[in-house]
Amino acid sequence: MVLKTIRTVADRWQHGKGEYGHIFEPYVGDECIALDLETTSLDPESADILSIGAVKVRGKKVVTSERLDIKLQKPETLTAESIKIHKIRGIDLHGGEALGDALVELLNFIGNRPIMGYYIDFDIAVLNRHIRPRYGFSLPNKVIELSHLYQQKVQRANPELQPDLHFEKIAEKLSVPIMGRHTAVGDAITTALMYVRTMQGNIPL
């Protein structure tokens, strides 16, 4: 955490007046961005991005009309083994965008809003591995982890309870429909719905 803070301060000093300087400004508002990636592996040091899904949450509303659903060009690291993880085939990526273009879209969509997701640190690590060499900075946005937020809300009501933090189990407990599991935009929307439900008040134990 200390290292990240130092790096963000250095990035802000170097890029704060540049093209993406606005993302280093403190966010004021009630929006966040639910984000999900589909990748070639579960190793953030080597995973390539296959698709990006993001949707805006405004207050207690998931704004599905304001979302990103980007498929990328097929990377060389897409193998039969990786397809078992995400079920995305090479043919499914036909006509996909170049990674650089997709990152520009994503940075413009997120701005300086908080980024929320399920095990979001993985997605942030993968994105930063591609963003930093191109732009010279890592994402400085506040990050909200859905599973931590859900666990805190459950244990605030019952400190002895250890909730099941699997994606499907959280959705089931919150009575949230799963929208296109293992698609980036589907998982982003589902995560956004779970976040809104968790923030609304008491949740089922």
TrEMBL record:
GO BP, sorted A to Z: DNA metabolic process
CDD domains, per the entry: DEDDh (cd06127)
GO molecular function: 3'-5' exonuclease activity; nucleic acid binding
InterPro entries: Ribonucl_H, RNaseH-like_sf, RNaseH_sf
Species this chain originates from: Oceanospirillum multiglobuliferum
Protein name: DNA polymerase III subunit epsilon
Keyword Hydrolase applies: yes
PANTHER family given in the database record: BLR4117 PROTEIN, DNA POLYMERASE III SUBUNIT EPSILON
GO cellular component: cytosol
Sorted UniProt keywords: Exonuclease, Hydrolase, Nuclease
